[in-house]
Structures are given as C-alpha cells and as structure tokens.
Amino acid sequence: MESNFASQKKNSKTSRSIGILTAGGDCPGLNAAIRAVAKSAMHFGIPVIGFLDGFRGLVENRYIPLDDRAVSGILTLGGTILGSNRDKPHKMDMGGTVMDMTDVAIANARRLNLDCLVCLGGNGTQKNAYRLARKGGINVITLPKTIDNDVVLTDTCFGYDTAKSIATEAIDRLHTTASSHHRIIAVELMGHSAGWLALGAGLAGGADVILIPEIKYDTHAIADFLNARRHSGKRFSIIAVAEGATAVGTPDEVDEDDDEEKSQKKNGAKNGGKNGKTPADDPSAPFSKQPLMIRESKVSRIVREIQMLTGIEARLTQLGHVQRGGTPTPADRLLCTRLGATAGELIAAHRYNVMVAVRGDTCIPVPLEEVAGHIRTVPTDHPWVNAARLMGTCMGDA
Ligand code: F6P
Questions:
Q1: Closest atom of ligand 1 to CA, residue 123
Q2: Minimum CA distance residue for ligand 1 atom 2
Q3: 39-58 pLDDT, tens per residue?
Q4: 20 to 30 Å CA-CA from 284: which of 82, 164, 353, 387?
Q5: Of the listed 53, 148, 150, 258, which one is catalytic?
Q6: Ligand 1: nearest atom to the Cα of 86
Q7: Arithmetic mean of pLDDT, 339-344
Q8: Mind spelling out the 3-state secondary structure of 241-294?
C-alpha cells in the first residue's frame, strides 16, 4: 500500500500530496465527492490517498491510493468506498480503552508528508477536523455532508437532496395506501435535531401534518386538525414526523458533543446493560464498536396518542437508513462535483482550514472555526414553514 503511494508520489510533478477521509453517518454522494476531490487534485498533479473508516484509518495508518483507476466508475455509487464511522481522534476506543489519539493522527499525516487532509462529513466531522487543525501540524479542508442538512454557513449539504427524494417518494406511495384504507399514516424521517428533511419532503410530498423539532407539537391540536379533515370529507391523512420532533412542555434536548455520543445516545444506552454494553458486543471486532442496540422511536408514541384521540386507525412507517442508501440524485452528484472541484483548487492555492460552502451558484471557502460546534436548524419563520402554513398544513402547534 505504502509503496504504491510512494511510487505515485515519485511520478507526480510535485512533492505535495493529500489524504481524504469520510466520517460520520454515510450518505449518497460521498463517492461522487471523493472522486471530485481526487480528480481535481490529480489535475494539479497532486497524488491522493484515502484513509479507511474515517479518522480511525488515519490513526491506524490504513489507507489506499486514490489514483485515476480507484476513483473511476464511482460517481453514481451510494455509500463510501473508504468506509465511515463516528470515531474521533481525541476520544478513540483502542481495544477497550478510550484514548486521545490526536498526536498519533497528526504524526501519521506528517510521516506521509500530507499537505492537507480533506474530511467529508457532517457536524461531528467538522468539529473533529477543526480539533486536528487547531492542534497544529495538519492542514484540513472539509466538505459539508449530511442528510440532516444542518451544517452552518452553507446553503445546503450533499446527501440532503437524495434523502429528500427518497422520503418524498415514500410519502407519495403512502398516500395511495392511506387513501385505500382511510387511515392516518405517519412516516418518521431522520434529521437528528433539525427538521430540514421532514419539512422538505413533507412539503414536496404534500403531507397534511409536518412535525419538526424546531416547532413543538401539541397532540390535541394535531388530533383536532385531523378530525376537522375527516369531517370535511377527507378520509385519510399523512403525517411527516422528524425523528427529533418533541411535544410542547418537553425540555429541549441538549445537542450532544459529537457524532459518537449522538449515536450512543440514540442507540439508547437506557436499553443496554451495565455500562451500556450488551452481549452483542464482540471483543474480537477489528476496531471499536458502539454498544449494539436497537433504537426505539419516540414517534410510535405520537401515533398511538393520535389514534386514541381521533379514533381513526393510524399506522407508522419508519424509513430509517433507506434514506441514506443508494444512488445520489443528479443534484447531489452535481453538488459533490462542484464542492470537490473547489476543494482541489483551494489545495492547489494552499488555502487551508476552511470548509467549502455552497452559496448559490458558487462554492466558497468559509473558516472552519466558524463552522465547528454550530448547527443550522430550521428558523420557525423560514419561508418553507410559511409556505406549509399557507398550504393549510398543520405544523403541530396550536
Ligand atoms: O446524521 C445523519 C443521521 O442519519 C441522522 O439523521 C440520524 O439521526 C443518525 O445519522 C443515525 O445514525 P446511525 O446511522 O448511527 O444510526
């Protein structure tokens, strides 16, 4: 592996090189972005390697060369050819002991003479990349990736459009079956603590009720709305619910420090045994693992309550990771290509420690320190919320 990279470097016009990694939850478009960064770096004569399994690959020195052949034919491929996880260098489970591996990560990047580490990820990745940059000795560039669409200072994130399309198609399909059976069907959508996915897909799919974390819902108000719909002759209803939607009177959830904690919390340590471990943990696993537990949805409670209050049969569909699977939409492929190409240009110009953001038709660098640690939720007066209300959509509030 190393010797391939060494010969690739020897044959290149410059002594520069870069590494790419994908971290956090995967999404369609990661491969398109890897391809775009690698191809544009190669355009400038800069060899590229890809670290396997997020930041862990950097710490464990596991990487592959990303030459022209390696990135050929991956534009339309879902997932990530590099693998991903939610591990972070400053708190990494190394065979059962959680350790700060930041220095090892930096030393490995230096040993490989990397000019820059390009990190493709959501909010957790932005923070982890920034931590590495702040520690010094390693330049980073990030790209905003997440189906949650909640990274700040960018118009949008790649992965969102595809997830929104998948969710919209699901809502379309649920319409026909809800109509046949005169039911209420709720569809739970991802998005963590932001409502972009439920709002976007709910609007595009014409959901009758849209519940997002930013607007606390009142079950009685929803039931009144659904009853009024029924009395007006509409015999079915569709509810698009964000996984983070919460009822009026429920305290706001504190945003977790990072992706790994988010995942542990969502996986429900409350369901696990002592120390959150379950018998499903495999000590012989090749690298760190979260306690393996099934996530329980709080949306099922909403559906139960609505059925009780309306007396109308209600069903719940959870799309889950289907929203993160498969081929990226043309819009996401285009976005990834634009972001990746700009990353290549920034690397060529030695412009580091920035995230490549989308602003209209352009991609611009924004300081990573202004991105890390922030989250972009839906403003309650956002034009999409306004449009939903004008469509007569119930947003869950009274
Ligand atoms: O951040 C992306 C996301 O899909 C969120 O929408 C969701 O809450 C979370 O990741 C799910 O995480 P995991 O894949 O670890 O279950």
A1: 1
A2: 25
A3: 999 999 999 999 999 999 99
A4: 82
A5: 148
A6: 15
A7: 98
A8: EECCCCECCCCCCCCCCCHHHHHHHHCCHHHCCHHHCCCCCCCCCCCCCCCCCC
When pLDDT is cut at 50, 70 and 90, the band that residue 297 belongs to is: confident
Establish whether 148 is a catalytic residue: yes
pLDDT tier at 153 (50, 70, 90 boundaries)?
A: very high
| CB 25 near ligand 1, within 6 Å | yes
**What is the mean predicted confidence (pLDDT) over 221-229?**
98
With a cut of 60, say whether residue 269 has pLDDT above it.
no
Q: Is 263 in the pocket of ligand 1 (CB under 6 A)?
A: yes
Per residue in 170-218, pLDDT tens?
999 999 999 999 999 999 999 999 999 999 999 999 999 999 999 999 9
The 3 state secondary structure assigned to the chain is CHHHHHHHHHHCCCCCCEEEEECCCCCCCHHHHHHHHHHHHHHCCCCEEEECCCHHHHHCCCEEECCCCCCCCCCCCCCCCCCCCCCCHHHEEECCEEECCHHHHHHHHHHCCCCEEEEEECHHHHHHHHHHHHHCCCCEEEEEECCCCCCCCCCCCECHHHHHHHHHHHHHHHHHHHHHHCCEEEEEECCCCCCHHHHHHHHHHCCCEEECCCCCECHHHHHHHHHHHHHCCCCCEEEEEECCCCECCCCCCCCCCCHHHHHHHHCCHHHCCHHHCCCCCCCCCCCCCCCCCCCCCCHHHHHHHHHHHHCCCEEEEECHHHHHCCCCCHHHHHHHHHHHHHHHHHHHCCCCCEEEEEECCEEEEEEHHHCCCCCCCCCCCCHHHHHHHHCCCECCCC
- Decide: 146 in ligand 1 pocket, CB within 6 A: yes
Structure tokens at 36: 């775009």
pLDDT band at 252 (very low <50, low <70, confident <90, very high): confident
Measured from the CB, is residue 125 less than 6 Å from ligand 1?
no
Task: For residues 129 and 105, give the distance between their C-alpha atoms in angstroms, rounded to a whole number.
Answer: 11
- Ligand 1 within 6 A of 59 CB? no
CA of 319 from ligand 1 middle (Å) equals 12
What tokens does 194 get?
């932001």
